[in-house]
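chain below, 761 aa
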Amino acid sequence: MSKVFKVSLFLFYFLSATFVQANVSPFITNISPFSPMTVSSGNNYRIIFYTYDYESASMWNYLYYNTSKSMSGAQPITNLYNLNGTNDFYWSTKNISHGKYYIAGVVADSSNAMRTNYSMAQLTITNTNKAAGSGNTRPVISNISPLSPVTVYSGNTYPVYYEAYDPESTSMNVLLYINTTKSMSGAQIITNSLAFNGTNLALWSTKDFSHGKYYIAGVITDSSNASRTNYSMALLTLTNTNHALLPPARPQWLSVYSAWTNRIDLYWQNLPNETSFTLFRNTIKNSNTAGRVTGRAMNVTNYSDIDLSKNTKYYYWLKAYNGAGSSPFSYTASNKTLGSGNTEPIITNISPFSPVTVYSGNNYSITFNVYDAEAPVVWTYLYYNTSKSLTGAQFITNLYMLTNGSHTFIWPTKDVGSGKYYFACYVIDSSNTMVTNYSRALVNVTNTNRPVSLPLTPPVISNLSPLTPVSIYSGQSYNITYYAFSYVYPDVIWVDLYYNTVKSLSGAVLIQSNHLSTNNWATGCSWSTLNRAPGAYFIIGVATDFSNARSTNYSTAQVTILRPSSTNGDVTPPKPPANLRLTPDSKKLTLTWNRSTEPDVANYYIYRKAPADADYKIIQITSADSYIDVNVANGTVYYYKVRAVDSSGNPSSFSDPVYGMPVKVNGKVVLSDNLIKPKDPQELYINIMPMDSKVIEVDIYIYKINMKLVKKIHLTGLNSVQNLYRWDLRNANNVRVPTGAYFIYVKGVNFEVRKRIYIVR
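prediction:
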């Protein structure tokens, strides 16, 4: 890594710790190439650049090329919606003339403040006859921490950061080792993890390692088994096993994001030794008068602050806690809710960017970006046509409630005739503003006689925690992490999590069934050890995709559940909380209870059970006598109970359970949030709930993803409480519907509700 880039990394860590400033222009730096480079015409060149804005978590970036460091006559390459930090884009030079060019980057934030910068050196495009290279390039691992000498107390966790890059792979395997010298001879393994292009993090528990001075070695291997080894720049010293637990370090913000008039989403970095976080808020930049917004349980690193005033700037601070005390306040973060505008949505980067050929019968992945400053895009419609026009265009699909960002849809060309087509895409936001855009290049569908090449490759589930042995006390929760990936159906992966005393599914107990909408790291599956017998357990993960292909994986180490013990001789549990009450509202449920009269009660543990949960799970630890649960979905019933825990760690018995349903009024009905799981489904209940005492009637339409009507149902005489219609998954001809995606559309007088579901067998 160049000296310039190291300095930029230092500036990034320094600037990320400063106070949020007002009306400061964003900046864009480190635009590659850093030294003169030659690329054969037709090959792709990876443009790397770094952006940062004090006020915004994300901004627009525009890339251009020109023969000089000037915007006069510059040609556009792409526009990207990016987060703060290092970004990249692969630029196809296929239709670019030979010559020497500079790359220009223009960054603009939400306040329209702009900044321009240029690559440090020229890029020479030459030799059109040279074929694009697809060799066996070795991956790169660099900047392995520590970058300067550091001391860690034995038993604490040390975060190992490193940079990974491979032009051929999107993911690589990294083994981390420690040794007293920069050598692999005699090195001890620390961890085995999956790495992606860019900055990666691995947490090393030093509990079982001897005192001494060590280098960290990283061995990176890509999908072709090409590998490379590198070492940390400085020594890490392990010392003093008797050192007492330290309070957590100052929490660091990752993002404070607002795209609504009444809500701000907050994300922060997890800390290795915290047991909880507390969030504070103020309308002025003063942490001393800030009010407590909420407490968050261990490893919970996000919060959606709702019911805010529009067009108002809010300031936020975090504190982290453990048994040794609290951290300092985080540095100030802030953002402003939107005003009540009518900004039109944006749709860009519709693939393909350059001409591409697809054999008829194969699938093509349509990618595109959507963005709306006021709300998620409500409806997105995809078409194909022989020209850039909606006249005569053929419908592909419609997608509902897309979030801002990049999206992918798999287009099956099975019934599409040979020819050259453009993709058309138009979006509608919540204010019914519509925008249309088209793919930049043609997709050529050809050769219907070529066989379909869609292998039924099973999905991948890996890095199932714990990676090293871990112990927790009975009644606490353990956060399970894993990585799930499907080569064929990235938008439909089901992950079932189990626990067992052996590495086997025989006799395993289900923890949670989780639907992933994209290939992703999945975090935050909280496994409650309530009523689990003390002992050692393995975590088991089963991933199932749209084709019902499945794979199984096991945690590499055990979770040991310990029986709580008192340190002062007190083994008497407190009385349970009394008079637990629940108040429902839209997208939230409020719990209140009578505070315990016993003086040594330290905290209250809140447990919740959703319909998909096999048992109650701990969701919050608080010293207050109330809690607002905002991680709920309207139309779904949730069950709660609370127990008190005293300062000696003795838990009470549980309160009487309560249950309730958050309700959102949409006209006069609420459609329950149902997904059909891959367990040979037999039926789906559609929950219709009038919001007044009038008797109403509705029509229920069930469509396939291509909007072909499957079945229509007419219901009358609905009561004012709830009405469950049981659909037996059969069409109008009484035939079971096949696996696939469907829309449920409920329509009555002056109201309508839509819901997208998956049927997976």
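The first strand starts at residue 27 and ends at 29. The mean pLDDT is 77.
thats it, cya
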